[in-house]
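W.,

You were right to be curious about this one. When I first looked at the sequence I had no strong expectations either way, so I just let the prediction run and decided to look at it fresh. Below is the sequence, 203 residues in total, followed by the output.
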Amino acid sequence: MQTKKKELNLDLPLKDLRTAVVLAGGVSQRMGQDKALICDPDGRTWIEKIVKLAHTWAPRVWVVTGPSLKYQDPLKDKNVELICDDVPNLGPLGGIATALTKTMSSHVLFLSCDMPDVSVEDLNKLPFISNLEEVVWSYPTYFPFVIKVNGSVLMKLKQRLEENEKSLGKFLKLLTGRSICFKNMERTLNLNSSQDLALRHEN
């Protein structure tokens, strides 16, 4: 008797078909120090915490950053690849373009280096993208978000870059997809300034 062949559910990509990307190419001007290298009381930098989180979603983790080697020491032995931003000075869209044009994965998760409180629980609530979708993002900050890599997405991204359009939100809304709202929204807020940092310590 022939055994019925099990069909793969293409809406649920295997873990080895995914890549997680941490964007860390900003200048941290409002914070007054490199956000990725801020140390929490447990002794870990934000970039270390976010890279560890990224590994729960994908075996392959990239950090997209500028030409500086400042993240080599904190990320030593963290099983992460540092990728130099090919499209500098265009904010997160430049880092996204760098990652999407290099990856061979079908789905890419993007995280920001200034969101150290995002949890495994939060990532688990990100739904997988259906066959009819290109992106699922978090409301209201967009990060974390998952993009399906295809020609349509790359074409729209290229067009935005050629127009020197830096808005992440406008780009994501060009794609077919949806936003989701986390119950504990404060965990997915970007920490951009010393005031944000002080409020986090108070809480």
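Here's what jumped out at me. The radius of gyration is 17 Å. And, maybe more interesting for your project: The helical segments are 46-55, 91-102, 120-124, 151-162, 168-174, 194-202.

Coffee later to discuss?

I.
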